[in-house]
Amino acid sequence: MDLDLEEQEQLAKLKGFWQDYGRWLLIGIAIAVIGSLGYWGFKTYQTKQALAASQHYEVLLEQTDKNDLPGVLSTAKKIQQEYGKTAYAGMAGLLASNLAYSVNDKEATIEQLKWVANSASSESFQSIAKLRLSSLYIDQKTPEGLSQADQLLNSKMAFGFEALKLERRGDWYWAQDKTAEAKKSYIAAWNVLSDERMKAPDAKEIDPALKKLQQQNPGPDQRLLKVKIDSLGGF
Length: 235
Fold this sequence. Notes:
This protein is an all-alpha fold. It has helices at residues 5-65, 69-82, 87-102, 106-119, 123-140, 143-154, 162-174, 179-198, 208-216, 223-231. It has 2 domains: 54-159; 160-235, no CATH class. It is built from 10 helices and no strands. Helix 7 (162-174) packs antiparallel against helix 8 and helix 8 (179-198) packs antiparallel against helix 10. The relative contact order is 0.05.
């Protein structure tokens, strides 16, 4: 049956649109399909990487239980080199640094912490490594060590590490006999932790008396901090 005039006009417009834009539509569809395939291919790759890394991490745990430091360091480096984008690489570095520290291998401890601080995929793992490294450098009490600790404490850290960062800054001041500045940093760290306790679902309304009670009954994460504050004269 012959098309009426209106249908013929619509068909002509469609043909014209296809001639003008059809090629680009096909290219756009092709790009979308390729992008989707690439995304799922990348997700599959990530899953395989994580699975392989987890198997090596199981070996690392067994070596740690045996206090096999050479084996632990070798496995940790393998995970970091071949599966560095997985969370297991950061976990391996922290675990290896703990074992190295326990046997007084400071060089290996620092090497592993540096890797985590600079290369771990998790910002939280990076922050833990930075804080542990800063403690090691502060303990050296040398100008170079204090300078390196200062750089680490000035660097960005993950959310939730503010109190630990302030406490470590207090240690940095105390190592230089700057006790007034150290006490100020410790109290600032204490206040951050106290505020976090107050925000807990079962916390009571904030009042001066409750804050005073907290100073006398520190939480588990505040006990060492209270010892440091008391050593400098208390609140």
